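Input.
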Amino acid sequence: MPSRVFFRDACMLLLILLIGMWPLVWSTHSMKWDIVDITLPWNYYLTECINNGILPLWNPFINGGFAQMGLPDTWYPITWLLGFTFGMDLGTMHLDYLLHLFLGGLGMYTLLRQGGLPSAPAILLGTAYMFSGFTIGNAQHLGWVIGAAWLPWLFYYLRRLRQQPNWQLSLKLALVGFLMVSGGYPGISIISGYLALGYVIWHSRKRGRWLLYLGLSGFVFILLGMVVCVGALDLAPHINRGSALALSAEGWGALNGALPARALLSILTPFSTTVQPDFWGADLTLLNAYFGLLPLMFLLFANFRRKANRRLRLYTGLGLFFLCTALAEVFPFRAWLYHLPLFDLFRFPTLFRLFAIFFFLQAAAIGWQSWNQQLTEQRRFRWILYFMLIIFLALSIFGLADIGKPTWALWSQGDWSGWLSQLNWQGRMGSQALASSLFLIVFIKISKYKFQKRRINWLVLFGVFEILSAVQFNLKSTVITPQDPKIVDEALARLPRGFPLPRLDVGLSEVTEDAFRVLPYLHYNQNCYTKIPSAHGNSPYSFRSYRAAEANSQLSFFESPLVYLKHPTAQTNVQIQQFSPNHLQIQVESTAADTLFFTQNYYPHWKAYRNGQPIPIQQSKTTFMAIEILPGHQQIVFQFEPQNVIRAAWGSGLTLGLLCLILLIAFWQKSSRRGRWILGLALLWMAWNSRATQRQYLPEEARYQALATQLQQLPQHNSILWLANVDNPELLHTYLDPNIPFIPVRIQRKSDLQQLYTVLAESEATACYYFALNQLSNFPETIEIIRERFPKVQSQNQSSSAFLGYFQALPDRSRDIFTHSFERAHAFWSNGQLDSTRAKTGQWSELLHAEQEYGATFKYPLDSAKSPIKVNASTHFYKLSRRECLLVLQIMRNGQSVFWSGQNLTDYQASNREWQRALLSTDLPAVQAGDSLQIYFWNPGKDSVWIDDFKVEMRYEE
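Output.
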């Protein structure tokens, strides 16, 4: 049972984490790069599978389909737990990152306390590990952070099992090993495995019961890791990274991504490595090896003592070895390790710096103990501080002397953020070196205190404060971006909760990031959110057959929809009836024998059934699938059935569940009343959140039945327009009163809104019911388009599974409308280039082309006393290509832009040969007197674009 001191210190570490990562804690910033572009969509896909009762075996939404079951992190229990409890969005990803920072810091604290280090310095070194250059520099690589989090726990339980062998520690060691292997980067798991093996071999000379319990750990670990091992071995022969990497520093070579020698400066001033990657010779995320100023001082002090024990030399030697291994361009150690089993499967030698930091901190702990016990050692420690103070002062003078006068002008104006952003690497080195010099002066003063307890507490306090200040220097460079995560999470809440039926009028190659973009700020793998199969995606893994088809120019096959016949006729029909990641059921009617193509990457575990009977699948066009179709009516089912992986998943899941139950019971029996209260409240809190999350995941039939029940309770009359944004209108018909003549409008991308414009234009109704199941994307622009025809909102109801709105064609006095048809000059519009060759209405339209990049500008003065809260700018446009053309809204203040929003017309473009409509809907920020609103067209694609019937609607608070 953990002691009261442990809980107190864990709370201290948690408080330090919350302070250091305040932008993520308070959701003022988002994380950046791979963690949101690759990890978030993959985890979102996993969460959707889990909450819909589906094993995450096949991912059809990226690169023509991928066997997600073979990636170890697919089976990481923490991801499953977070997704099941909270759902998956940016807030959950931030929680995931923060949780593993905390676990890593607490693990290092626990490991050092086990070695006899007092509480206060253990908190300091736990903080140093939690906020090390590895976890801050590689924040985008969540697998690296997860591996770092479980590393100290692995050796903590390994050491405890040797000292106090029992079955509980054996089970905990197996669990930690599985969590590292399933969630961590494979390279970290492999290196840790070799270190653990070395530890076991070294201590196996003294045989004892612990080796027997270690065997139990190994057996349980194998049961837990079955699914990871079976899935990875199954996938490895089919992907581009399933075999040994070349011993090379180029491309995907094992030596690619080494720590540059000059990046060792990050140990002293990590802020210097946040700019100018060309100077450093590597990506900025691979450079940071910082682990705290005070821990570095104790590391140096420990190794300059006259009498250093063997354990200190071992930790320091291992740290230096791993640091030299990370410097693969300078030392040959990584090339030598390449020849060990499994070491040829991963690249990025810079990840070895994690193990250097891990052992350096343990050596620093020994230095602290020596300093705290002997007065003469304390004097020697001050000499180390004086020596390093001279070095840091020299670095600060050298760095600050390189700063130019314009940059210093920002400092004198009080623009410190702007001053820091303008610094080159020398200036950043100098600024942080100066800050470190001030901390060293404080350390020197504190080290002279006569009262030991006060000296230790103040030294730890300022040591932690120095680490926190270093984190703030680097935070914006490698961890956060100023984008608002709440906007992304609100958009995610409007996304499908089930798996919509794929469309057969859109080819997979058309499902691009831009065409189906529904989330702001996020750049890649949007189709994992919209649940639309796509030929596109951003992933470090790909099938070899896919790459071969790409090399043979056969990916044009993706221009077709998910399933189609080779020789379609007017009498043939293909209709999708059921769809999930691992299952596709279609109904086919054909007058003759034909071939049915399934545009997913071929994989041996796909099975096909015709009217319940198995039929062979052919590998077509290098990487796709096809089956033979008979004449007549038939039901075809494609099922992904990797039986070995499914059995392994059940075996691992049952083992994990039983293991967790055993450990919870053991904890409950040994814990005090306080511990039981804490555990009980934690379980209740998780259960409450899980219940709230699971309300959003109803079966498809239940969703449609609930929607039909709600609609039948609404007042009905002949002048009401019923609009249904549903995935399966036929299923809704089975539950809905046939007297309700709803019109289906299936909106999955902004270009689909053209059909909504058409339906509204043709309707003579005086009111409108609009309802949308949360199985399909509910764009905010949809409501704005409806309100253009039916301005008055009588009611809106957003539940966890559906949206229902009632709108009437009544005057709305809370808005102003300005229109420009380009037939004559307008007071609020500047003049553009008119053209009479095409016009939506009247004779004239505006023409943008290569020489006319900007269109007519709508200018309107804003009044802070009465400012619009929302602006809708809409237009008809005619484009001959899909090149970029933007409808832009700006707020200008004293000649400077203070707000900008843009909408690409191509997103609304359903055809190249007809007039279409686009809408830019923007919520405006607070304005000041003298601000002006400007709305215009910007045509960077420089292709011909015609604009007509330009309309601006300003909406005020009602």
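The chain is about 45% helix and 15% strand.
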